[in-house]
Amino acid sequence: MKKNTSSYFFISIMVAFIVFISSPGTGMAQSRSADLIQEYSNKANQFIADKNYEQAALVLEELLIKKPELNNEMVYKQMTHIYDDYLFNFEKALSLYKKYLDQFPEGIFAGAFRERVAYLNERRSEWQVLRDFRKVQLEEDHIPIKDSLEEVETILSKNEDRLTAPEMHIYLANNYFKTADYQKASEHVEKYIKNFDKASMSNTDKVLALQLYSDILVKQHRFGKAIRALDQAMELGKPEENFTYALKKNHIINQRNMLYGFMFCLLYFITVVLLLIPIKFWRRFNLQKYAGWLVTPSLLLALISLGPVLILHLIEEPEVDLRIFFGQLGLSILSLMIIKLLAPLTSKTGRWVYVLISCLHMGAASFMAYYMTVYSGRKIVMNTVIEADVDPAASLFLMLMWSSAAAALLINIIYAIILSKKEQMARI
Questions:
Q1: What percent of the chain has pLDDT over 90?
Q2: Which residues have a Cβ under 8 Å from the Cβ of 247 and sit 6 or more positions away?
Q3: SS3 at position 216
Q4: Could you report the per-residue pLDDT of 110-155, keeping only the tens digit for each?
Q5: Per-domain residue ranges for the chain?
Q6: Could you count the other beta carbons within 10 Å of the beta carbon of residue 186?
Q7: Of 45, 90, 104, 162, which is most buried by a Cβ count within 10 Å?
Q8: CA angle, corner 322, sides to 321 and 326, nearest 5?
Q9: d(CA 118, CA 311)
Q10: Helix (H) or strand (E) run with residue 297 in it
Q11: 126-237, what's its fold?
């Protein structure tokens, strides 16, 4: 019994000794392997930084020869990146993608690599076109953007029906947008969008294209289509991005309203200028009976700025505070009373009063545009945290406008009284 116990004790000691001897060796071997990988990876990165892509690929190839069973995903990622994105050796890149998937079927990059394999296989007959296009992309930072656009346009003109064409369209759309050539940018992004169902595109690519299209349309002042493009992007995008889309949509609506405000202000200004011309001038053209008719459109234009706001309120587009616009309505009525009672156009004083009231109208219309765009947009952002019922800026501006109108009315009443007394004294 003692002999068996001694034998078991001796075997246990030997096993422990072997484990003790082998463990440090295994750890050291793993450490040496990691150091070797790091060394080769650093060399490859240095060659990439120097734009010596062939040498970078050779360094990593040498590493794979030394370590044929290399269990490091990042090395494969680095190699495929070099062959696919820099050397445009799609055959080699494809073989490395497949080798990675065989070795790491559930690896970190497995999903992306499978998509890349499908992409390259689908476009195998177009590899030369893809190389030409990628070379332009690779060198775009070193040549004028105009030259790169011309080169891609030339490639695209010969390969309009290829699967690679949508990629060139979106590239051109982005770069034409950067150069402020919005017409060409719009044409190319529209062609890209038409290929949504034909080409294999991810929802992310579609969303980015629709966002670009929306930005281009805003620059072209086509706000309705821009909003529809953004709505389509919202449907394809992720739910957590809806708030960002809502803010951007509100910004587009505000820009549209600013344009409308400017157009109405300009129209009103032109009418004011026409009405400031004395009636005597119109008599030369035998337009005396028509000159009076110009008063009617001026009365309408004084109130017409309310139209877009009320329409927007009915269709529930932006959140607008209608109190400010009803305040402008009151100011318009007061101004018209002053014009009718105390400021005939044939009087010098009347023309000065008309100019003053018209300036007030222009100020009100300008503030309407500002309120609906800059201030309203900022208020919506602030109200996501704090809801404010009182709008101090609008109230202050209304107070100033009403006080100015009241002052103008008072001045004209005093002037009329003084003038009438002078006339009475002159008669005496």
A1: 32
A2: 380, 381
A3: helix
A4: 999 999 999 999 999 999 999 999 999 999 888 899 999 999 999 9
A5: 31-122, 126-237, 256-427
A6: 21
A7: 90
A8: 140
A9: 51
A10: helix 295-304
A11: 1.25.40
Q: Does the pLDDT of residue 31 top 70, yes or no? A: no
How sure is the predictor about 17, in pLDDT bands with cuts at 50, 70 and 90?
very low
Alpha helices per DSSP H over 159-286: 165-178, 182-194, 203-219, 223-236, 242-276, 279-283
C-beta contacts of 246-251 below 8 A and 24+ residues apart? 247/380, 247/381, 248/214, 250/318, 250/377, 250/380, 251/377
Cα end-to-end span (Å), the chain: 154
Average the pLDDT over 15-24 and give the result. 43
Residue 271 has pLDDT above 80, yes or no: no
* 355: Cβ contacts below 8 Å, ≥ 6 apart: 272, 276
Assigned CATH class of 31-122: mainly alpha
How many alpha carbons lie under 13 Å from residue 273 in its C-beta half-sphere?
6
Q: How many CA atoms lie within 13 A of 88 on its CB side?
A: 14
pLDDT higher at 202 or 83: 83
Distance CA 271, CA 265 (A): 10
The model's pTM: 0.63
CATH topology match: 31-122 vs 126-237:
yes
